Amino acid sequence: MEKPNQPLDQFKTLIGQKLNKMPSMAGNWLGGTLLEIEKGSIKVSYTVTPAMSNPARILHGGVASLMMDDVIGMANFVAGSEYLMTSINLNVDFLSAAQVGEKLEVSAKLVRSGSNLNHWESVIIKDSGKLVAKASSNMIKTHIKLSELGF
To answer: Concatenated DSSP letters for the chain?
Structure first.
């Protein structure tokens, strides 16, 4: 029998809600809405705002990267480690533009979970189904227990 996953259960209560009261201030600024979360996967929706855009009024690459990194971080938090894990890389491919006002869905899935390292893949897809960006990231276990941070 699998033991209870309190972080996952807590996140599930946020489905359908704006993620603006999270530990990540940058993630709060993004203002996403949690659509789905399970152990090893997540989906969050965002709307591109003027503050998220570059001078051409399209989604800034740094903001797209932040979206994927933050979504991966949330999903990794509920993946089951008792230790804080942090990104050691984020490899991003920008494949098409997203305009101000467009709705995006950012998803991430756990590809491989190891004793010290988790490998994730993430995508940003527009409402039209067009792929905006994709990323892969590795998260490494630190020596800091989540319980020491109050989680």
So the answer is: -PPP-HHHHHHHTTTTSB--SSS-HHHHHHT-EEEEEETTEEEEEEE--GGGB-TTSBB-HHHHHHHHHHHHHHHHHTSS-SEEEEEEEEEEEE-S--BTT-EEEEEEEEEEE-SSEEEEEEEEEETTS-EEEEEEEEEEEEEEEGGGGT-
User: pTM of whole model > 0.90?
Assistant: yes
CATH for 6-149? 3.10.129.10
Cα separation, 133 vs 95, whole angstroms: 5
The answer for 117, left when phi > 0, alpha when psi is -120 to 50, beta otherwise, is: beta
Q: Where are the domains of the chain?
A: 6-149
pLDDT confidence band for 149 (50 / 70 / 90): confident
Residue 151: is its pLDDT beyond 90? no
**Whole-number percent of the chain with pLDDT over 90:** 90
Rg, Å, the chain Cα set: 15
Kindly state the tokens that stand for 23: 């530990």
Distances in whole angstroms, Cα of residue 44 to Cα of each of 95, 103, 142: 19, 11, 26
